Amino acid sequence: MLKLYGFPVSNYTNMVELALLEKGIPFEYVLTFPEQTPEFLARSPRGKVPFLGTPQGFINEADAILDYLEDIGPARRLLPEDPHVRATVRALMKEIELYIELPARACFAEAFFGGSVPAAIKSKAREDLQAGFATLRRHARFAPYVTGDTFTLADIVFLYSVDLAATVGKQLFGLDLLGDLPAAKTLLQRLGENPHVKAIAAKREAGTAAFVAAVRARLQATT
Length: 223
What we know:
The mean pLDDT is 96. The radius of gyration is 17 Å and the shape is globular. Helix 4 (83-105) packs antiparallel against helix 6 and helix 4 (83-105) runs parallel beside helix 7 (153-173). The protein folds into two domains: 2-77, Glutaredoxin; 83-192, Glutathione S-transferase Yfyf (Class Pi), Chain A, domain 2 (Up-down Bundle). It has a four-stranded mixed beta sheet, covered by helices on one side. The protein is α+β, with helices and mostly antiparallel strands. Strand 1, helix 1 (11-23) and strand 2 (27-31) form a beta-alpha-beta unit. It has nine helices and four strands; from the N terminus they run E-H-E-H-E-E-H-H-H-H-H-H-H.
């Protein structure tokens, strides 16, 4: 059986867990937090989560794991068969990750954990987030899903990236990044009604307070 190593507050772990659940692939969830020990690095070379235990060994990086799950779990496809449509899904996944999730992540310490982010990094994040949401507005279809009428991996990446980024935009910059994207708001609500998404959200909610406290303590210890 596959083993998913991660923790419920990790949005990338949530992406992989939702794909596993939606595809109906049996797996064991192993609560795991990032480490830099030699033992951990032997399984995850950068010391991050999620990573996936398979009969052949470990796979790290969420996008690589999602590709692997698509290859081994054909019962429900989360990538289209048509090469052009599949490439469009992958492009949107990458755009959301690079231009929305990553700029927001640069500000997580201040937005969520009481830390401080240098002004130059925040300025660039603000600019990148505005450009990223503009890219999403131009490229996504929201008909009703991100790339059309079918739920795909792009919707999973969207779900666990855009809401966090919008929160960063509002809390740090006073921006309503979803203000002119009502279809994106509607999709977030629609995805939130999915039973698997609700189960993942419940686990995340249960673990958030302790995780935030731990990160805040670590940040205070280094300042």
